[in-house]
Amino acid sequence: MARWRSHTRLARAGYVVATVAAVIAVVAGIGAFAIYEQLDASITKVNVGGLTGRTVYGAQNILVLGSQERQGQKDRRYFGYEANPGTANSDNLLLIHLNSTHTRATVLSIPRDLFVYEPSCKERHYIGHGIWPAQTYPPGAIIDGALNIGGPTCAVKTVEDLTGIKLDHFVEFDFNSFREMVNSIGGVEVCVPKGGYNDRYSHLHLTAGKHLLKWNQALAYVRTRHGVGSGTEEGTDLARIQLQQAFISSVSQKIQSQGILTDLPRLYGIAKTAAKALTVDQNLGSVSQLVGLAKSLVHLHSKDISLITIPTTTDTYPGYQDHLMAVQPQDDVLYNMVRTGQVWHGQLPVEPYSKVQVRVLNATGQTGLAGRTKRRLSKLGFDVVGVGNAAYTATTTVNYAGTEQADSAYTVMTALTSFPTAENTLGETAWQDGHPGPVTLVLGADFAGVNKPAPVTHHTTHHSNGSSNTTPAVSKSITSGPGSVESRNAGANICSGLPPAYNPNG
Questions:
Q1: In Å, what is the CA distance from 464 to each residue of 58, 95, 102?
Q2: Which residue range forms the structural domain that includes residue 372?
Q3: How distant, in Å, are the alpha carbons of 212, 231, 265, 301 from that of 186?
Q4: What is the average pLDDT across 468-489?
Q5: 61 and 99: one domain?
Q6: Which candidate, 398, 447, 449, places its Cα nearest to that of 422?
Q7: At what angle do helices 15-25 and 237-257 cross, to 10 degrees?
Q8: At 488, which helix (H) or strand (E)?
Q9: Exposed/middle/buried for residue 391 (C-beta within 10 Å: 0-12, 13-18, 19+)
């Protein structure tokens, strides 16, 4: 797929803001039939296979893609250069989950460079006239190419296979719509940390402090990656996702604080821009349907929007060190949260230890280590179903079979002194849900022991229907370091949680 990707390393636009603004902008106040007709004619509808297409009320899973399509734009200073401007790689991928009352939203950011299993797809006409073969994982294929190869249906199939989440609707924005959307809401205020953001590739030059960004400057801000990040994320797409999530926070806070949803004249102008920018599935292809969705979002406040980056890692497959692979079981735990309607509280949930079955295998050669580990896990409350020996390995690993066991695997991992690796033992051609059952803790030479018992706390699970249940637990999730997940609350101060300035030239 590399031949359809950009030949430059310029960053892509943050279409996410266009998504947020567009969905919220087309709201209940626009009721006149003439306006409906005018806006209906502006919306581009596409037939997308695999979606439920169900009514916009109740829990919703919406796939939002930002295409790198930039037809007619040749100015390298602001837009970059695409060697094949007709391509449509999805360089921004968002999976938005709305709870049943649409008062909470979970937004999963899927990095564009993530390698995934890609199912077979019917090729777009400019790719070919046959069936693009399935790309077996590992290594699989880069997820942003699915839209280009097989269109929205292929993108939906690929994301559903990755997450196990059934999608209801599809929304796509292209590169050209971004500036107009930002200007239609009067610009967006952002915050820049000490050192400022300077990126000669995107032509972004901002001093520390707050700035109201419009037009090309806003575009440069959400495109930049060479001037942001720290550590292993310096100059990467992962750092740029942090910046774009901060931008979404600013947009959602502005819409809420300025009462844009109730300002009809202003709203109409935004709606005209939004309707022209939208490409939606056939079941969202009218203003009345979009208005229905918008009506349901009136009580969705910034503080109830969670922006989460899917955990990824590099150097996991020979020859693919520059790209990203999934981190398991953390990714599967996130997907389970969305499927079951759990609320994000800043860290992955863990199960009560008493509900987790685990088998312990000693792969160190140390006599009796499996038995000693069993006793320590049992003191914590785990149900240890067996012990044994295995061939020597240097690395401690938790093996689990499918997403049904992912929560148990992560819970075991959090109970160990040193966070181990994990492996899903089901191949991609198998049914990925798997079945509930014991996970296997393989003790490698780096095994550092089990955590000491802690005072009993309580584990509360919140569901999308508003219900919750509380059970005794001694388990504790991980909020930082290995095993943690990067996230942002959209209601947070716009000057918090920003990627630091990065100067690649020192």
A1: 9, 16, 9
A2: 353-483
A3: 9, 35, 13, 20
A4: 74
A5: yes
A6: 398
A7: 20
A8: strand 487-489
A9: exposed
